[in-house]
């Protein structure tokens, strides 16, 4: 739980961000954030995050072709595609279905699609991770999710949907920021920033221990490692990455 000093600093941060709290109270912030601020900000932070995480993503995605279906094709579904910063890591000929709860990333998305013409883009669905009902069960070889589980409403039901849409033997690839070690300064700052961060960044939670959700989900095999992706002034250094097999 947050200590007294963390709570005091948290109140100070809320004071600094009072205009956003006011706009939120008036019902103005959320639509503005969804349409304008978050897509703009996410593209900026994705750029910084991509530079820092590039070698991790190359390592993570290098064995994607191992999960090709019996037909030799790789059908991939991405949850929370955003502006498509993962496209560059997918193997040539891969059939991609993009999903995002927020349809306002079109500009960055079409830019990244033009840059990555080695892929076949099947469809774009506006859908939450917890509700992929437009996707038939056991219909994809791979599901990818990066920096998304921090902001879904329910991690367990998102993972249940992932397992539903994957064919048996298919894999779920993830790279996510998570809660820091509880005794660390990073965790202290995560506690301080938590409410304001969640409001400003469209529901992003700083202190989720996502490795526990992944261990509880019913994967037949789970490869998971804790890594560090440091972005200056951002309390999101601890990450996990890996894949789980259905």
Automatic annotation (TrEMBL):
CDD domains for the chain: AdoMet_MTases
Alphabetized UniProt keyword annotations: Membrane, Transmembrane, Transmembrane helix
Cross-referenced Pfam families: Methyltransf_11
Gene3D superfamilies hit by this protein: Vaccinia Virus protein VP39
Domain Methyltransferase type span(s) in chain numbering: 77-174
Regions that span the bilayer: 7-29
MF GO annotations: S-adenosylmethionine-dependent methyltransferase activity
PANTHER family: METHYLTRANSFERASE LIKE 7A, METHYLTRANSFERASE LIKE 7B
Name of the protein in question: MET7A protein
Organism: Rhodinocichla rosea
């Amino acid at each position: 739980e947050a200590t007294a000093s963390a709570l005091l600093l948290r109140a100070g941060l809320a004071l600094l961000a009072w205009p956003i709290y006011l706009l939120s109270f008036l019902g103005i912030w959320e639509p503005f954030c969804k349409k304008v601020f978050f897509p703009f900000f996410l593209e900026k932070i994705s750029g910084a995050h991509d530079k820092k995480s590039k070698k991790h993503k190359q390592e993570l995605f290098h064995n994607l072709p191992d999960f090709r279906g019996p037909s030799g094709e790789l059908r991939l579904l991405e949850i929370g595609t955003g502006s498509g910063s993962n496209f560059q890591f997918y193997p040539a000929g891969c059939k991609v279905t993009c999903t995002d709860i927020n349809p306002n990333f079109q500009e960055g998305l079409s830019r990244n699609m033009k840059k990555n013409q080695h892929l076949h883009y099947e469809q774009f669905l506006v859908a939450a991770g917890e509700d992929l009902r437009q996707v038939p069960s056991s219909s994809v070889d791979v599901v990818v999710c990066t920096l998304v589980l921090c902001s879904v409403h329910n991690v367990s039901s998102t993972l249940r949907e992932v397992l539903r849409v994957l064919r048996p033997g298919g894999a779920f690839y993830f790279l996510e920021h998570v809660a820091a070690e509880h005794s660390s300064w990073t965790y202290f700052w995560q506690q301080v920033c938590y409410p304001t961060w969640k409001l400003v960044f469209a529901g992003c939670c700083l202190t989720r221990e996502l490795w526990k959700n992944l261990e509880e989900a019913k994967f037949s095999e789970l490869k998971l490692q804790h890594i560090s992706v440091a972005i200056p002034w951002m309390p999101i250094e601890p990450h996990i990455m890996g894949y789980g097999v259905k």
